[in-house]
User: Fold ABC transporter from Actinophytocola xinjiangensis.
Amino acid sequence: MDVSGLVRRFGTTTAVDGLALRLEQGTVLALLGPNGAGKTTTVEICSGFQRADGGSVNVLGLDPAVHGEKLRPRVGVMPQGGGAYPGVRAGEMLALVASCAANPLSPDWLLDVLGLASVARTPFKRLSGGQQQRLSLACALVGRPELVFLDEPTAGLDPQARRLVWELVGALRTDGVSVLLTTHIMEEAEELADQVVIIDHGRVVAEGSPRQLTAESSDAARLRFRARPGMDTSQLCAALPADCRIDEHAPGAYLLSGSIDPQVVSAVTTWCAQQGVLAEELHVGRRSLEDVFLELTGRELR
Ligand SMILES: Nc1ncnc2c1ncn2[C@@H]1O[C@H](COP(=O)(O)OP(=O)(O)OP(=O)(O)O)[C@@H](O)[C@H]1O
Assistant:
């Protein structure tokens, strides 16, 4: 799939502003971005649910705005928030979607894999939020698609169901299916994606494999630890090398960046001991995808 120069406006808002993406066959691309960055709009244009105001989209060699009918049997879509006729039973819904496909997977098998066999006769509106999500995923996969769009596939899922979705995405990739997913869970992108694209204000701000994105531009490492929230770290900072910086980026979560050497680690633990606190989850390593994401898109709420 290839997207270039994509533009979508809503009144005075430019939701997508010249976006370019490339999803290679049989790979997983994670589209990340803060709330309102333009992820869902992009996915909806690529999957043929919205028209673009500019740019080009090529999905499996076709333009979704022109060849929606031809594309529909070849792609699977799990929209954000799912959706179905409220009164339809879970099993009926999946059977209905399967009946539109040339060579569908067995709906019963898929219900079983997704842990929905026991609610096959339950009306959609009576399913729990997580069950609705899983049914929506089943509907996206039942037609054996060549390419799947998953808009926040694990939002609202419990840890077991999230792992199951991760396994399914891994299995799709092994089968040569291309996957475009959006997520706010950085760990999910690190775990699943071959390629990560971070967007903000409808534009690409960074892209690469999770490893490329988290590789340090210098040899500066990070030291993280958890301790009592709100500690005054100015004294600690004064005792560290000049290029070291310490931030409490969430209550009780401290992040020290700069030249981290054994003396710095020792200074941190000694200082914590002097404060009478235990430095928990002390970890020295490269920056995480979440660090990169926050550096690029800022820390303020959208
Ligand atoms: N139908 C619409 N009418 C008006 N504005 C819209 C419409 N759809 C999206 N927008 C606006 O376009 C921008 C991008 O929205 P979009 O839903 O694509 O963001 P997102 O990255 O998917 O966000 P989230 O992470 O919250 O799901 C937002 O400012 C949103 O308010």
